[in-house]
Amino acid sequence: MITQSQQAQPAHPVFPVEVGTSPHPQVFGLRRAAERLARKLGPRRIWHVNSTPAGGGVAELLWSSIARQQSLGLPVGWLIADAEPEFFQLTKRIHHGLHNRCAAEFTAEDARLYRDVTARSAKQLLEYVRPGDVVLLHDPQTAGIAPHLLDAGVKVVWRSHIGTTERGAAVAAAWNFLRPYVEVIPTCVFTIAGFAPAYLSPAQVTAVTPSIDPEAPKNRDLSPQQCRELLRRAGLTGAPDEAVGYAVQDQPLPADAPVVTQVSRWDPLKDMTGVLRSFAEHVPTGHLLLAGPDPADIPDDPEGAGIFAEVCRMRESLPPDVRRRVHLCVLTLADQTTNALVINAIQRSSTIIVQKSLEEGFGLTVTEAMWKSRPIVATSVGGLTAQLVDGSSGLLVDPTDSLAFASSVNSLLADETRAARLGAAAHDRCRDRFLVDRELGDYLNLYRTALDG
């Protein structure tokens, strides 16, 4: 059973997340490698640190990966470095900058806030972490912690799950802001090596693509009956279960209608408004479903509520005959297992999965759809270009070309044979490249490298 620690916490603490072991069998070679690593570790531990236990791809990856690592007998823990809203507003700007989407300058006050918060988090982390332990820090929220841990004799790896190969002014400003912290880290991990800043040496850069767990609630097989019941509980086809979520719609989602779906956070880079606009203007058939988490459940994403409200306003302004074909679904994260099962059901019940991101480090929901053999239309940005082969395992379009996006959707709605062929190829590509055992092997290599450093 996977549960977050429920004890009362002081304001903005570092606190642990309790993760149970995975019940699923491990690849024999991984178990042998883990046994060798455990002997090398001795009394030392491995820790993962990020800013939230729920919401977004990083937290989801960690639930599954840490459970599997623990089931291999490795002493792996998970710590959350919480912070005040002002800090997360700053790190959201850094996030957008690393995607070349934020032109604002970073001020001396920004630098002070980042330095002070991450120094405080480092001090709190050292109540758990000991010299010689291996700590894997995730994303910009944690990079500033690294120098303090290194000074304390901790082995540090930093993993950035975001980025772009573009080299604009916003990217340069964001990487320069992080430079005092990132450039001292011996090993920095990126989804694509080309995401790394120029000031890192090749020896510091490692590429690891994220993965999914095919046995996890979000990806395991569901029967048509289970899918129907989960859609009902989400409010899409009947009265909602408030513990699951709710739908914004004029009428229930028809059981026999083609459904075009995007699942993502309510984030400007996911371009939910662009999906809605393209569908409303250029896709005359089928229904659109935009599904995402309740913004109130994601404290490190301060923009979510505003983006969701914007999507609601845009939907409300549509002509009635178009608006009735547009459905919004908001899912609570209070019960992560139920949340995952509902998303699983939504993806399996969809005719086409889309991901119209303006930038994307790696589209975890795209990988989930690949595993479920869904035909996919996505944008040719960031990690999506490593996930899908255009015309073979999916369709990739320019993120700024709304008409091309809609044309790709229309072509798949009109050609079920081609859609099925793309979906089958996507499943095979996911099986070969993006499943959790491969990433577990990558983590074992990272831990060994850190211990040898």
List keywords for this structure.
Trehalose_Metab_GTase; TreT_GT1; Rossmann fold; alpha/beta; 14 strands; seven-stranded mixed beta sheet; globular; 2 domains; 453 residues; glycosyltransferase; Glyco_trans_1; disordered N terminus; carbohydrate metabolism; 17 helices
Describe this structure in words.
The chain is α/β, with parallel strands linked by helices and about 450 residues long. The protein is built from 17 helices and 14 strands. The chain folds into two domains: about 15-210 and about 435-450, Glycogen Phosphorylase B (Rossmann fold, 3-Layer(aba) Sandwich), CATH 3.40.50; about 225-435, Rossmann fold. α3 (about 85-100) packs across α4, α9 runs parallel beside α10 and α9 (about 270-280) packs across α15 (about 400-415). The chain starts with 13 loop residues before the first strand and ends with a helix. About 50% of the residues are buried.
Question: In a few lines, what is going on in this structure?
Answer:
This protein has 453 residues and is an alpha/beta fold. Helix content is 43%, strand content 15%. It has helices at residues 28-41, 57-71, 85-98, 108-125, 140-143, 146-151, 169-182, 224-233, 272-282, 304-316, 320-323, 336-348, 364-371, 384-387, 402-414, 416-433, 436-452; strands spanning 14-17, 46-50, 76-81, 134-138, 155-160, 187-190, 205-207, 245-248, 259-263, 287-293, 326-331, 352-355, 376-379, 395-397.
The unreliable regions are 1-10
CATH superfamily of the largest domain: Glycogen Phosphorylase B
Choose one word for the global shape.
globular
Number of strands: 14
Tell me the domain tally: 2
Class based on secondary structure composition and strand pairing: alpha/beta
Taking all Cα atoms into account, the compactness measure Rg is 21 Å
CATH class of the largest domain: Alpha Beta
> Which percent bin holds the helix content?
40-55%
> What CATH architecture of the largest domain would you give?
3-Layer(aba) Sandwich
CATH topology of the largest domain: Rossmann fold
Question: Count of DSSP helices?
Answer: 17
β-strand percent reads 5-15%
Which strand order spans the largest sheet, edge to edge or round the barrel?
1-3-2-4-5-6-7
Span between termini: 35 Å
Main pleated sheet = 7 strands, mixed
Subunit structure: Homodimer.
GO molecular function: glycosyltransferase activity
Organism: Lentzea jiangxiensis
Domain Glycosyl transferase family: 345-427
